[in-house]
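Before going further, learn to read the protein records used in this course. The integers have meaning only within a learned vocabulary of local backbone shapes. To see the layout at work, look at the sequence and tokens printed below.
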Amino acid sequence: MTTHTTDYQADMQAAALSFMQRHQAEHLGEGQLLFTRALGYLTTSLRVPQAMAEKLVTRAWGELTSANQPYRLDLEHSSEHTVAIVDPASGMTLAVPVALIAQHLIDTPKRRRLTAVS
């Protein structure tokens, strides 16, 4: 990915985050609606291609909803089947199987907290 493309995506992700921060109070408890509006904002107002907008809004959503969380994802040490999560306060890295995440968040309807991206 070129620097220009990286800068563009960073700028569009920042625009999505800013949009969601401005409109978050309008959608308390309606995360999916806020997500959908941010997606529409990027694709319609800023003319970001749909697939890229979905990726960038998803990342911005993660920033918005996890800003005060201490844990961070370590992409360098993660794989397709294991997610490395770092606790900066303790310095510990936790290896979490993706199957366990799916079992507790995705495959359990009462615990769904994820936003679907089509």
